């Protein structure tokens, strides 16, 4: 399989798995401008209020899911959200039990999105954004060691 075919396969899989939720939330796929060092294994969806992005990393071994306001001033990881929703111990467990392959990771993240949909989609609460920024900063220090 060529890299181009692998990228197409990744994006097709994400579109298919995310289709129902994207339709429910009126999210449209975003066509990203081509940048020289952009990860091609990335796909984003957004509406007027928020976005969700899936990015395959480590040659498809893992997947990063980010979300935020559609302005994209700030973006947050699912791990950031888990810290606020379920606590640090659950966020650490999320990191420690990373399944192999983007397919399994996407399924895991979609389950979290479905279970906590209002958390990920209602981002007008300024205190929630401040709390996410605080957790993001803490995680950056914690996981960069």
UniProtKB/TrEMBL annotation:
Source species, domain of life: Bacteria
Protein name, entry field: DUF4304 domain-containing protein
């Amino acid at each position: 399989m060529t890299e181009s075919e692998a990228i197409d396969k990744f994006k097709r899989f994400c579109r298919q798995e995310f289709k129902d939720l994207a339709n429910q939330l009126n999210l449209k796929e975003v066509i990203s401008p081509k940048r020289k060092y952009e990860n091609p294994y990335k796909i984003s969806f957004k509406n007027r209020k928020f976005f969700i992005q899936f990015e395959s990393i480590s040659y498809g071994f893992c997947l990063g899911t980010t979300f935020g306001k559609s302005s994209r001033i700030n973006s947050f990881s699912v791990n950031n959200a888990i810290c606020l929703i379920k606590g640090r111990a659950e966020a650490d467990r999320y990191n420690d039990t990373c399944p192999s392959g983007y397919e399994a990771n996407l399924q895991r993240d979609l389950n979290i999105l479905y279970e906590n949909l209002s958390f990920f989609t209602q981002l007008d609460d300024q205190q929630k954004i401040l709390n996410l920024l605080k957790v993001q900063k803490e995680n950056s220090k914690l996981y960069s060691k």
